[in-house]
Structure formats: C-alpha cells, structure tokens
Amino acid sequence: MNAVTALIGHPGGLGWVALKAFLLYVTAVIALRAGGRRTLAELSAYDFVAAVAVGAVVGRLPSAPDASYLAGAVTLLAILAGHALITWLRLLPAGRRLIEEGPVVVVCEGRVLSGNLHRAGMTRTDLDGLLREKGMSEVDGVHLAVLEGRGRLSVLRRAAGG
After folding, report:
1. Residue 35 near residue 76, CB atoms below 8 Å
2. Residue 126 covered by a domain
3. Could you give the CA distance from residue 109 to residue 95 in angstroms, rounded to a whole number?
4. What is the CATH number of the domain that holds 143?
5. What is the CA radius of gyration of the chain?
6. What is the pTM of this model?
7. Each residue of 59-94: pLDDT tens digit?
8. Which tens digit of pLDDT belongs to each residue from 91-138?
9. Residues 36 and 59 in one domain
10. Count of domains forming the chain
11. What range defines the domain where residue 93 resides?
12. What are the phi and psi torsion angles at 36 (to 5°)?
C-alpha cells in the first residue's frame, strides 16, 4: 500500500459510501419523524440511548465495507422500534414505574429536604446552582422546588410576605 492509498483509501468506493450515508440519514429522519415529536423533545434516558444508537449507525455504517445500506436500515428500524415500544410501555402505570423516575420535592417552604436531595443524586451545591439559574439567590424564597423526572428543576416562589 502506497502513502496516497493509505491516506485517501480507494477513491472508487467513495461514491457508495456517500450514497449509503445519504440513504441512512434520510431513513433515520423519516423514521424519527414517524415516531412523532416525543422522540426529539426533551431527552429522557431512553430517548438519549436511541439518539446515540441512531447516530452510531448513521455515522459508522456508511464507511464499513462489510455492511450494506439494507443492514443499516434494518438496524435503524430495530432501534427505533425498540424506542417506540419503550415509549408505549411508559403509558401504562406498571411500565411508567419501571421506565421513568417520578418527580422529587427537594425544597418545601424554604427548607431543603436533604433526604430527597440525596435520593435524587444531588448535592446542595447542585441545588443552589439550579436555583440561581431560576433567579433565586436564597432557598428561603422558594415555596416548592421539584426535580422533575427528566432532571429539570421546577420552582414555585413563596408569596410576598410569606
């Protein structure tokens, strides 16, 4: 193998690589679109896994000489079918308990609930940072702070004078 071939490969196959990449991209977009808005909305853990897996297939498969477009399309569809199944299962009470974490109250009436904070895997520093992002410099001004299942913090301020 000469230096030019080692650097750029065999240019004759580049058209097929480009075609596979294009077709896999289009297939992923169509399949994600068919999955509805939920697929690309705020990412839950299972949304993130699906997105990474789709990205890995679309990014790796076109340059793999031993993998066809059809193999990639079937892989994409299997990943997205698994994602659709998980999305459907979370609509059932038992599935939701298994798949999603529920909301956790971490502040109530200006008091940090340390046990809940710990169960949520957060430190007081994490909480203070999230409160500052919400424009709250002191926990005393918080009526209720809830760590939502997807990791966002919802904050209700205390009424003035309360």
Report:
1. no
2. yes
3. 33
4. 3.30.240.20
5. 23
6. 0.61
7. 888 888 888 889 889 999 999 889 888 888 888 888
8. 888 888 787 777 899 999 999 999 998 988 889 998 999 899 988 888
9. yes
10. 2
11. 3-98
12. 90, 175
